[in-house]
Write a structure and sequence with these properties.
Number of domains: 2
Number of strands: 12
Strand order of the largest sheet: 2-8-7-6-5-3-4
CATH architecture of the largest domain: 3-Layer(aba) Sandwich
Number of helices: 14
Helix content: 40-55%
Distance between the termini: 52 Å
Shape: globular
Order of helices and strands: HHEHHEHEHEHEHEEEHHHEHHEEEH
Length: about 400
């Protein structure tokens, strides 16, 4: 039998989808499960965006587009990035893809060479596809720990200690998945100063949650003059406009846009023509739908954080953005005799019908930082109240 490549066998996955499948199987068997495991807005795409997609279908927008995207969307995306971040991108600096996720791969491919030992520094815990893509494309993953004591940020001094002659790319994510933490502007300034001493390092700035900042205005490292030309700014429509299934993202980089365009041509050809027109409406049309969703997420954040901090053995920092909380369950694990957060997660699902993700689903556990799980609060207030009530009863029932 023909063999499968080692590269494919070593390719990681996104555990939210694995757990989601597990939840679906339990629900099909009749189990009552409340799921907080998937990072997907539970709202419909705003009606004006839906209408734009339908109009694109009915007006014959069915064919290929330029690989970099239709001019109207590149124009809209450049104006959106410039207005929201104080930048000066031209439409030609923007490339469109089927979601923001492909740009992780394209950026690693554009800045590292296979087998040369080039290193990519990435946040841990972090979006699991970062580490997976770094490995599969022949670079060396270098985790940079986000610590609870720092509000789930990293120590800039630790960042500088990890940079060497082999470092080619730094991945930043703010607001962050899975912690909901934000890298404040004062720390971005320190990071920029460090990187000025290391001119060979690119920055991949994952800003997909940029419009879901609750404690302070969003800041991009690309807004610092020394970093603009070295930063790949990545955003998209999935989170802000509830368009996860539409698959539309974009990246901006004056230097790398031509390389990204070639990678799109070599992989997906182009993003969906229909979706691109819906994206134009998302970026330029009425924003009341997005504003309503943001207000609801803030309401839910305050609700779930307050409830979690009343649960025995659980503490939860107030996240600055996105729609995730990252409660510390170290004491709760001890109370019920769970060896770690993964055993805690499994028992919570099977015994209480509450689905969450464990810290190990987002990378290696941060040393000396305890046990954590992730709740996505892209769920109704009623489900949040019931889910945290089940969590509390589960811990009390099993306390030894």
């Amino acid at each position: 039998m023909a063999t499968i490549s080692q590269r494919s066998n070593q390719l990681g996955t996104e555990n939210a989808f694995v757990v989601l499948a597990e939840v679906g199987e339990l629900q099909r068997k009749g189990n009552d499960i409340l799921s907080f495991c998937i990072g997907m807005p539970d709202f419909p795409t705003p009606q004006n965006i839906q209408n734009a997609g339908v109009n694109a279908i009915q007006s014959g927008k069915h064919g290929y587009t330029p690989s970099a995207g239709i001019p109207e969307l590149r124009q809209a995306a450049s104006e959106y990035l410039n207005k929201s971040r104080g930048l000066e991108y031209d439409p030609d600096d923007v490339v469109v893809a089927a979601g923001a996720k492909p740009f992780i791969m394209y950026s690693i491919l554009a800045t590292t060479d296979y087998g040369e030992g080039h290193e990519v520094i990435y946040p841990n815990p972090g979006f699991p596809i970062y580490e997976s893509q770094i490995k599969v494309h022949g670079a060396v993953p270098v985790p940079l720990h986000l610590r609870e004591s720092r509000g789930f940020n990293f120590d800039p001094a630790e960042l500088e200690s990890k940079i060497n002659d082999k470092t080619r790319l730094l991945i930043l994510n703010s607001p962050q998945n899975p912690t909901g933490g934000i890298v404040p502007r004062r720390e971005l300034e320190i990071i920029a100063e460090i990187l000025e001493r290391h001119p060979n390092v690119w920055v991949f700035s994952d800003e997909i949650y940029s419009q879901l900042c609750f404690e302070e205005s969003f800041s991009s490292i690309a807004s610092f003059p020394s970093m603009t030309d070295r930063t790949i700014v990545v955003d998209g429509c999935s989170k802000t406009w509830a368009m996860t299934g539409w698959r539309l993202g974009f990246a901006a980089s004056k230097a790398l846009a031509p390389a990204f365009t070639k990678w799109v041509t070599n992989t997906e050809s182009c993003a969906s023509h229909i979706t691109q027109w819906a994206g134009v409406e998302a970026l330029t049309g009425n924003q009341s739908g997005a504003q309503l969703m943001r207000a609801k997420f803030l309401e839910r954040r305050d609700l779930i954080v307050g409830l979690l901090n009343e649960v025995p053995g659980v503490t939860c920092l107030n996240p600055g953005g996105a729609f995730y909380v990252w409660p510390n369950v170290t004491e709760a694990c001890q109370m019920i005799g769970a060896k770690d957060s993964e055993e805690f997660r499994k028992r919570l699902l099977l015994e209480a019908g509450v689905a969450v993700l464990a810290d190990i689903h987002f990378g290696r556990r941060v040393p000396d930082d305890g046990q954590h799980v992730r709740f996505s609060y892209a769920a109704s207030n009623e489900d949040i109240v019931e889910g945290i009530n089940r969590l509390s009863k589960f811990i009390l029932k099993n306390t030894r």
